[in-house]
Amino acid sequence: MMRSKKTFASAEEARRFVEISEAEFEQRLMLAVERVCENKDLRLIGLTGPTCSGKTTTAKKLIKHLTERGKNVHVVSIDDFFYDRDVLIARADNDPNIEVDYDSEDTIDFDALRVCIDEVFSDEPTQIPKFDFIQGMRVGYVTIDPDDNDLFIFEGIQAIYPKVKALFGKYNHKILYICAESAVDVDGVVFAPNELRLMRRLVRDYKFRGAAPEFTLYLWDSVRANEELSIFPNAVNCDYFVNSTLPFEVNLLAPYLRDILPRVPADDPHKDAADMILKKLEGIEAVSPEYLIPDSLCYEFIERQK
Q1: In Å, what is the CA distance from 302 to each residue of 9, 32, 49, 115, 298?
Q2: In Å, how far from its chain's centre is CA 208?
Q3: pLDDT tens digits, the chain, 306 residues: what are they?
Q4: Contact present, 47 and 178 (Cβ < 8 Å)
Q5: 158 phi and psi angles, rounded to 5 deg
Q6: Which H or E run includes 174?
Q7: Which of 88, 127, 188, 300 has its CA 20 to 30 A from that of 293?
Q8: Torsion-angle region of 70 (φ positive above 0: left; ψ -120 to 50: alpha; else: beta)
């Protein structure tokens, strides 16, 4: 359990609280980064964890430290191998027993992913698709011409799925798992790790993926079901672990959520869930994004990263 405050005695106290919390997270992350860097011949890292755990920031920090050690590092988002949204909707329309699936391993074009991984290890040029989440489709490709000094980070929740790990398994690889593991107690109001990730996702999807809060809340049940089925049970098989909870994040996210959640229509079935989050946030003082370090994990959720 990590602890925060509903109110701070001064702006300086809030700033110092954020500074200490950021430093503690950096220390946790760097322990994992150093262990990864001990593997001199590593060419593939699977970076995984449930939704809104901080994978993008971790990938950037891995790039920095591995580049300093002479590696040419490429990050491949497994999300870029999503089938187009129209394909997923058509699949659901053709089967009355299923809803639109945005989270399971069946949303990934495994043929394209397999070709990409095999080409990386055969030193053949490979094309990496680029997926636009607002349009819900692939919008182009980037060509990479790998060599023996290249290291690829395949980042996404899917890196933990057995079918994806099987693709990695033919080659020398390691899996790093990051997740918000600790709850945050804000003067007696407790936010569980899964609540923290939902709050992160509500802000991120609204700001960066064009998703209304009621749509994110609608998806959350299927997201959580997939996590319990495919992510958390497989986490024990990962090589490295990082806890991404930041004790000040409730204070940081509060003003964004106070702006976003009232937009849920009164007649929407997820209105009660939105109001419940708002109720828990009552009286919680915001901390300024200005207090964040330049490469803070929190930028993944509140604004484009610096």
Answers
A1: 25, 25, 19, 35, 7
A2: 13
A3: 999 999 999 999 999 999 999 999 999 988 888 888 788 788 899 999 999 999 988 888 888 888 887 888 888 999 899 888 887 777 666 666 555 656 667 788 888 999 989 988 887 888 889 988 888 888 899 998 887 778 899 998 889 988 898 999 888 899 999 999 999 999 999 999 999 999 999 999 999 888 999 999 999 998 999 899 889 999 998 999 999 999 999 999 999 999 999 999 999 999 999 999 999 999 999 999 999 999 999 999 998 654
A4: yes
A5: -70, -15
A6: strand 173-179
A7: 188
A8: left
pTM across the whole model: 0.85
Domains of the chain, CATH where assigned? 2-302 (3.40.50.300)
Angstrom distances, CA of residue 295 to CA of 57, 61, 166, 188, 220: 7, 9, 32, 30, 28
